[in-house]
Amino acid sequence: MALVARREDALKAVAKASLSLGAPDVITLVADISDPEESKRVVDQTVAHFGKLDHLLANAGIGGTCLFEEITNITAFTKLMDVNFWGAVYPTYYALPHLKASRGIIIVTTSVAGRVPTARMSFYNASKAAMIRFYETLRSEVGSQIKITILIPGYVVSELTKGKALQKDGRVEINEDARDIQVGLFPVGQTEKLAQIAIDSACRGEEYVTWPDWYKPFHLLMSLAPEVLNWYSNTFYMTRSDEKQSILIKRILEATGAKRYLYPNSILSAKKE
User: Which GO terms fall under molecular function for this chain's record (predicted)?
Assistant: First the structure.
Protein backbone atom coordinates (compact mmCIF):
# COMPACT_ATOMS: atom_id res chain seq x y z
CA MET A 1 0.00 0.00 0.00
CA ALA A 2 1.24 3.48 -0.91
CA LEU A 3 0.10 6.39 1.26
CA VAL A 4 0.32 9.89 -0.18
CA ALA A 5 -0.14 13.23 1.59
CA ARG A 6 1.61 16.55 2.19
CA ARG A 7 2.34 15.99 5.90
CA GLU A 8 4.99 13.42 6.65
CA ASP A 9 4.09 13.05 10.33
CA ALA A 10 0.50 12.12 9.47
CA LEU A 11 1.70 9.66 6.83
CA LYS A 12 3.98 7.92 9.30
CA ALA A 13 1.17 7.57 11.83
CA VAL A 14 -1.18 6.01 9.27
CA ALA A 15 1.58 3.73 7.98
CA LYS A 16 2.31 2.50 11.50
CA ALA A 17 -1.38 1.80 12.11
CA SER A 18 -1.69 0.00 8.76
CA LEU A 19 1.24 -2.28 9.51
CA SER A 20 -0.16 -3.08 12.95
CA LEU A 21 -3.45 -4.08 11.31
CA GLY A 22 -1.71 -6.53 8.99
CA ALA A 23 -0.72 -4.61 5.87
CA PRO A 24 2.26 -6.56 4.46
CA ASP A 25 4.06 -3.57 2.92
CA VAL A 26 3.46 0.16 3.25
CA ILE A 27 5.36 3.03 1.65
CA THR A 28 4.81 6.73 2.37
CA LEU A 29 5.17 9.40 -0.30
CA VAL A 30 5.13 13.09 0.57
CA ALA A 31 3.53 14.98 -2.30
CA ASP A 32 1.02 17.64 -3.29
CA ILE A 33 -1.26 15.81 -5.68
CA SER A 34 -2.79 19.05 -6.94
CA ASP A 35 0.50 19.32 -8.86
CA PRO A 36 0.45 17.09 -11.98
CA GLU A 37 4.18 16.34 -11.81
CA GLU A 38 3.87 15.28 -8.18
CA SER A 39 0.95 13.03 -9.08
CA LYS A 40 2.95 11.39 -11.85
CA ARG A 41 5.88 10.88 -9.49
CA VAL A 42 3.86 9.08 -6.82
CA VAL A 43 2.22 6.79 -9.38
CA ASP A 44 5.60 5.99 -10.91
CA GLN A 45 7.19 5.35 -7.50
CA THR A 46 4.31 3.13 -6.43
CA VAL A 47 4.55 1.01 -9.59
CA ALA A 48 8.35 0.86 -9.27
CA HIS A 49 8.06 -0.42 -5.70
CA PHE A 50 5.19 -2.89 -6.07
CA GLY A 51 5.47 -3.76 -9.75
CA LYS A 52 1.84 -2.85 -10.42
CA LEU A 53 -1.04 -0.69 -9.26
CA ASP A 54 -4.18 -2.52 -8.17
CA HIS A 55 -6.47 0.23 -6.89
CA LEU A 56 -6.66 3.99 -6.40
CA LEU A 57 -8.37 5.91 -3.60
CA ALA A 58 -8.72 9.64 -4.34
CA ASN A 59 -9.49 11.27 -1.02
CA ALA A 60 -7.77 14.69 -0.90
CA GLY A 61 -9.99 17.60 -0.02
CA ILE A 62 -10.30 21.05 1.47
CA GLY A 63 -13.45 22.85 2.60
CA GLY A 64 -14.63 26.42 2.23
CA THR A 65 -17.46 27.91 4.29
CA CYS A 66 -18.55 31.46 3.54
CA LEU A 67 -21.01 33.29 1.36
CA PHE A 68 -19.78 33.92 -2.17
CA GLU A 69 -20.37 37.67 -1.93
CA GLU A 70 -18.35 37.90 1.30
CA ILE A 71 -15.14 36.53 -0.24
CA THR A 72 -12.37 39.12 -0.08
CA ASN A 73 -9.69 37.10 -1.92
CA ILE A 74 -11.41 35.37 -4.81
CA THR A 75 -8.21 34.09 -6.45
CA ALA A 76 -7.37 32.07 -3.32
CA PHE A 77 -10.36 29.84 -4.01
CA THR A 78 -8.68 28.30 -7.04
CA LYS A 79 -6.83 26.25 -4.39
CA LEU A 80 -10.09 24.55 -3.45
CA MET A 81 -10.74 23.40 -6.99
CA ASP A 82 -7.07 22.46 -7.46
CA VAL A 83 -7.08 20.17 -4.42
CA ASN A 84 -10.59 18.73 -4.61
CA PHE A 85 -11.01 18.27 -8.36
CA TRP A 86 -7.55 18.20 -9.94
CA GLY A 87 -6.12 16.45 -6.88
CA ALA A 88 -8.27 13.47 -7.89
CA VAL A 89 -8.05 13.83 -11.67
CA TYR A 90 -4.24 14.04 -11.93
CA PRO A 91 -3.52 10.77 -10.05
CA THR A 92 -6.34 9.10 -11.97
CA TYR A 93 -4.85 10.19 -15.28
CA TYR A 94 -1.42 8.75 -14.53
CA ALA A 95 -2.78 5.64 -12.85
CA LEU A 96 -5.27 4.76 -15.60
CA PRO A 97 -3.08 2.50 -17.79
CA HIS A 98 -1.88 0.58 -14.72
CA LEU A 99 -5.43 0.17 -13.42
CA LYS A 100 -6.55 -1.11 -16.82
CA ALA A 101 -3.78 -3.69 -16.72
CA SER A 102 -4.80 -4.88 -13.25
CA ARG A 103 -8.55 -4.40 -13.88
CA GLY A 104 -8.54 -2.42 -10.68
CA ILE A 105 -10.91 -0.20 -8.74
CA ILE A 106 -11.07 3.56 -8.30
CA ILE A 107 -12.73 4.85 -5.13
CA VAL A 108 -13.26 8.60 -5.20
CA THR A 109 -14.49 10.60 -2.22
CA THR A 110 -16.95 13.30 -3.26
CA SER A 111 -19.73 14.65 -1.01
CA VAL A 112 -23.46 15.05 -0.61
CA ALA A 113 -22.57 18.71 -1.19
CA GLY A 114 -22.02 17.76 -4.82
CA ARG A 115 -25.70 16.89 -5.07
CA VAL A 116 -27.25 19.50 -2.74
CA PRO A 117 -26.47 23.22 -3.22
CA THR A 118 -26.21 24.23 0.43
CA ALA A 119 -25.49 27.92 0.98
CA ARG A 120 -22.06 29.07 2.23
CA MET A 121 -20.26 26.29 0.32
CA SER A 122 -20.40 27.45 -3.29
CA PHE A 123 -16.89 26.48 -4.38
CA TYR A 124 -16.84 23.29 -2.31
CA ASN A 125 -20.20 22.24 -3.76
CA ALA A 126 -18.99 23.01 -7.28
CA SER A 127 -15.78 21.01 -6.85
CA LYS A 128 -17.65 17.96 -5.58
CA ALA A 129 -20.29 18.19 -8.31
CA ALA A 130 -17.51 18.35 -10.89
CA MET A 131 -15.91 15.24 -9.39
CA ILE A 132 -19.14 13.27 -9.51
CA ARG A 133 -19.81 14.11 -13.14
CA PHE A 134 -16.18 13.54 -14.17
CA TYR A 135 -16.06 10.03 -12.69
CA GLU A 136 -19.50 9.18 -14.06
CA THR A 137 -18.18 10.12 -17.50
CA LEU A 138 -14.94 8.23 -16.98
CA ARG A 139 -16.94 5.16 -15.98
CA SER A 140 -18.75 5.29 -19.32
CA GLU A 141 -15.40 5.53 -21.13
CA VAL A 142 -13.51 2.70 -19.41
CA GLY A 143 -16.46 0.32 -19.31
CA SER A 144 -15.71 -2.93 -17.49
CA GLN A 145 -11.94 -2.44 -17.57
CA ILE A 146 -11.96 -0.46 -14.32
CA LYS A 147 -14.63 -0.34 -11.64
CA ILE A 148 -15.37 3.10 -10.22
CA THR A 149 -17.09 3.60 -6.87
CA ILE A 150 -18.19 7.18 -6.19
CA LEU A 151 -18.35 7.76 -2.45
CA ILE A 152 -20.90 10.46 -1.55
CA PRO A 153 -20.60 10.97 2.22
CA GLY A 154 -22.37 13.43 4.45
CA TYR A 155 -20.70 14.91 7.50
CA VAL A 156 -18.15 12.56 9.09
CA VAL A 157 -15.22 13.20 11.41
CA SER A 158 -12.57 15.03 9.38
CA GLU A 159 -10.57 18.22 9.38
CA LEU A 160 -13.58 19.92 7.77
CA THR A 161 -15.95 18.96 10.60
CA LYS A 162 -13.28 20.04 13.07
CA GLY A 163 -13.67 23.48 11.52
CA LYS A 164 -10.62 23.65 9.26
CA ALA A 165 -11.50 25.33 5.97
CA LEU A 166 -10.62 28.04 3.50
CA GLN A 167 -11.83 31.36 4.90
CA LYS A 168 -13.17 34.35 2.96
CA ASP A 169 -9.75 36.06 3.02
CA GLY A 170 -8.02 33.01 1.54
CA ARG A 171 -6.44 31.70 4.73
CA VAL A 172 -6.89 28.08 5.79
CA GLU A 173 -7.68 27.95 9.50
CA ILE A 174 -10.00 26.46 12.09
CA ASN A 175 -13.27 28.34 12.57
CA GLU A 176 -15.59 26.38 14.83
CA ASP A 177 -18.38 28.97 14.61
CA ALA A 178 -18.49 28.58 10.84
CA ARG A 179 -18.37 24.79 11.31
CA ASP A 180 -21.34 24.87 13.68
CA ILE A 181 -23.36 26.94 11.21
CA GLN A 182 -22.54 24.61 8.34
CA VAL A 183 -22.93 21.22 10.03
CA GLY A 184 -25.88 22.47 12.06
CA LEU A 185 -28.20 19.74 13.33
CA PHE A 186 -26.80 16.93 11.20
CA PRO A 187 -25.23 14.09 13.22
CA VAL A 188 -21.55 13.60 12.39
CA GLY A 189 -20.62 10.02 11.47
CA GLN A 190 -17.46 8.12 12.36
CA THR A 191 -14.78 7.95 9.68
CA GLU A 192 -13.88 4.33 10.48
CA LYS A 193 -17.44 3.23 9.71
CA LEU A 194 -17.43 5.13 6.43
CA ALA A 195 -14.10 3.57 5.43
CA GLN A 196 -15.39 0.05 6.05
CA ILE A 197 -18.58 0.69 4.10
CA ALA A 198 -16.58 2.21 1.23
CA ILE A 199 -14.24 -0.78 0.93
CA ASP A 200 -17.03 -3.35 1.22
CA SER A 201 -19.15 -1.51 -1.36
CA ALA A 202 -16.26 -1.16 -3.82
CA CYS A 203 -15.51 -4.88 -3.54
CA ARG A 204 -19.15 -5.59 -4.39
CA GLY A 205 -18.85 -3.34 -7.43
CA GLU A 206 -21.31 -0.71 -6.24
CA GLU A 207 -21.20 2.46 -8.34
CA TYR A 208 -22.43 4.91 -5.67
CA VAL A 209 -22.23 4.88 -1.89
CA THR A 210 -24.02 7.46 0.27
CA TRP A 211 -23.43 7.36 4.02
CA PRO A 212 -24.71 8.10 6.64
CA ASP A 213 -27.98 6.69 5.37
CA TRP A 214 -30.07 9.69 6.43
CA TYR A 215 -28.56 11.66 3.52
CA LYS A 216 -30.00 9.32 0.88
CA PRO A 217 -33.40 11.09 0.61
CA PHE A 218 -31.60 14.28 -0.40
CA HIS A 219 -30.77 12.75 -3.80
CA LEU A 220 -34.46 12.11 -4.52
CA LEU A 221 -35.55 15.44 -3.08
CA MET A 222 -33.09 17.31 -5.27
CA SER A 223 -34.52 15.59 -8.35
CA LEU A 224 -38.21 15.94 -7.49
CA ALA A 225 -38.46 19.12 -5.41
CA PRO A 226 -35.26 21.19 -5.52
CA GLU A 227 -37.21 24.23 -4.38
CA VAL A 228 -37.62 22.59 -0.95
CA LEU A 229 -33.86 22.34 -0.50
CA ASN A 230 -33.41 25.90 -1.75
CA TRP A 231 -35.95 27.09 0.81
CA TYR A 232 -34.18 25.17 3.58
CA SER A 233 -30.79 26.56 2.63
CA ASN A 234 -32.03 30.13 2.36
CA THR A 235 -34.00 29.97 5.61
CA PHE A 236 -31.42 28.31 7.83
CA TYR A 237 -28.07 29.51 6.43
CA MET A 238 -28.53 32.85 4.69
CA THR A 239 -27.26 35.52 7.06
CA ARG A 240 -24.02 37.41 6.88
CA SER A 241 -21.16 35.76 8.78
CA ASP A 242 -20.62 38.89 10.92
CA GLU A 243 -24.16 38.39 12.28
CA LYS A 244 -23.84 34.79 13.50
CA GLN A 245 -26.26 35.34 16.37
CA SER A 246 -29.11 35.80 13.87
CA ILE A 247 -28.41 32.67 11.81
CA LEU A 248 -31.32 30.37 12.53
CA ILE A 249 -29.42 27.08 12.46
CA LYS A 250 -26.86 28.48 14.93
CA ARG A 251 -29.56 29.70 17.32
CA ILE A 252 -31.29 26.32 17.29
CA LEU A 253 -28.01 24.53 17.94
CA GLU A 254 -27.20 26.76 20.91
CA ALA A 255 -30.72 26.78 22.38
CA THR A 256 -31.07 23.00 22.35
CA GLY A 257 -27.49 22.10 23.30
CA ALA A 258 -27.71 19.53 20.51
CA LYS A 259 -24.06 19.81 19.56
CA ARG A 260 -22.87 17.63 22.44
CA TYR A 261 -25.18 14.84 21.26
CA LEU A 262 -24.70 15.17 17.50
CA TYR A 263 -20.95 15.86 17.31
CA PRO A 264 -18.33 13.29 18.40
CA ASN A 265 -15.88 14.38 21.10
CA SER A 266 -13.05 14.17 18.59
CA ILE A 267 -14.33 17.24 16.75
CA LEU A 268 -15.55 19.10 19.83
CA SER A 269 -12.04 18.96 21.30
CA ALA A 270 -10.22 20.01 18.11
CA LYS A 271 -7.33 22.34 18.90
CA LYS A 272 -6.89 25.66 17.21
CA GLU A 273 -4.15 25.73 14.60
Answer: oxidoreductase activity
pLDDT at 272: 45
Query: Is 124 annotated in the active site?
Result: yes
Q: Which of 90, 93, 94, 124 is catalytic?
A: 124
For 33-268, the fitting CATH number among 3.30.70.2190, 3.10.20.90, 3.40.50.720, 2.60.40.1120 is 3.40.50.720
The DSSP line for the chain is -EEEES-HHHHHHHHHHHHHTT-S--EEEE--TTSHHHHHHHHHHHHHHHSS--EEEE-----B-B-GGG-S-GGGGHHHHIIIIIHHHHHHHHHHHHHHHHT-EEEEE--GGGTS--TTBHHHHHHHHHHHHHHHHHHHHHTTSSEEEEEEE-SBSSTTTTTEEE-TTS-EEE-HHHHHHHHTTPPPBPHHHHHHHHHHHHHTT-SEEEESGGGHHHHHHHHH-HHHHHHHHHHHH-S-GGGGGG-HHHHHHHHHTTHHHHS-HHHHTPPP-
